[in-house]
Write a structure and sequence with these properties.
single chain; 6-stranded mixed sheet; 166 residues; alpha+beta
Amino acid sequence: MIYYQIKPKQVKKNILSFDYLPEDYKEIIFKDGLNAITKTLQIESITDYFHEPFPIISEEFLNTINIYTKTPPKKFVTVSSSQLERDLFYWAVKPRGVDCLHPETIFDNQGIVETLVLKKERIIYEKFFSVQGLPEDCWIVSLDVMESLLRRGLNGFVGEEVRLEE
């Protein structure tokens, strides 16, 4: 059993700015949709996965996840710019939270995870989920989901293998 943490491929700050920035996913669930404006139009900035200020994914990324699991709560996000010929469409999703953080997880002085360790028995049947108890968003996918995302040529993210313990 192998799992991966979804992480941004290149950490670039302030690519997107939102007309309204929800404080958490609960606010996203009750909002009709969100609008974002791109601050840069470099081709590598427009990807299938944005991590900042909160994770949003492309339609194809969401469709791939839906092959393996029930559709997570989601909200439509429109990304636009006066320099783009068309708007780009994304989804803000909230994967199911799983209480699976192992005590051997290592944090740095700022409380950021250095080494993520998950409880194997709590995630044995999970395909796409978030880890409860962490200060930042932490999406986890199973090996088959990661392979499927990469096979489709989706970009903007990398998978970092997660250590599992009993």
